[in-house]
Amino acid sequence: MIRTLPLLALLATVAAGGAHAQEPPKEAAKAAETFSAPIKNAKGDTIGSLAIRDGANALVLRVAIQPGGLPPGWHGLHFHAVGDCSDPKFMNSKAHVNHDQSKHGLLNPDGPDEGDLPNLYAAQDGSANAEVWSETPLNGEGGLKDGDGSALIIHANEDDHTSQPIGGAGDRIACAVIK
Ligand SMILES: [Cu+2]
Ligand SMILES: [Zn+2]
């Protein structure tokens, strides 16, 4: 809900300025911010890529994993709080992005936290392609590219979207630095 605040501030500004307020050029306001990074496994090998486009009201991310990159099946996918993939268990990336003490889980009545994303499905050959969206912004207040960055983490198991702290998703098996 953090990302609605700038919009409210903008509306307040426009209302205060009345008819004299200068509207920002539409093209500039709509330009999506982009970010891309390699996704690496525990050995430090690149197994795929992360591509983010962040628009005015939503962030859209694409995950592309090459054949052999992941064990087949469902895998939890989250934004973790620190942009550090340097240890093999990816614990340096800390817990989920969560600025307001929400509970974990897209299906949790007291959730979700800002790191929660749908599961990723890897095919029999270990490849995966997905496009998902999030309300968590790339830049600005509560953004992924804050002082210590963030990480996209892929887990060994699927996220049940309800239980604490990470939906039973298990080990962290792949990581991308967002900084
Ligand atoms: Cu996670
Ligand atoms: Zn979570």
UniProtKB/TrEMBL annotation:
Signal sequence residues: 1-21
GO MF term (any one): copper ion binding
EC class (word): oxidoreductase
Catalytic activity: 2 superoxide + 2 H(+) = H2O2 + O2
PROSITE patterns (UniProt xref): SOD_CU_ZN_2
EC number: 1.15.1.1
Domain Superoxide dismutase copper/zinc binding: 52-178
The UniProt record lists the keyword Signal: yes
Alphabetical UniProt keywords: Copper, Metal-binding, Oxidoreductase, Signal, Zinc
Pfam families xrefs: Sod_Cu
Cofactor: Cu cation; Zn(2+)
Top-level taxon of the source organism: Bacteria
CC cofactor note: Binds 1 copper ion per subunit. Binds 1 zinc ion per subunit.
Function: Destroys radicals which are normally produced within the cells and which are toxic to biological systems.
Family assignment from sequence similarity: Belongs to the Cu-Zn superoxide dismutase family.
Name assigned to this protein: Superoxide dismutase [Cu-Zn]
Organism of this sequence: Methylobacterium phyllostachyos
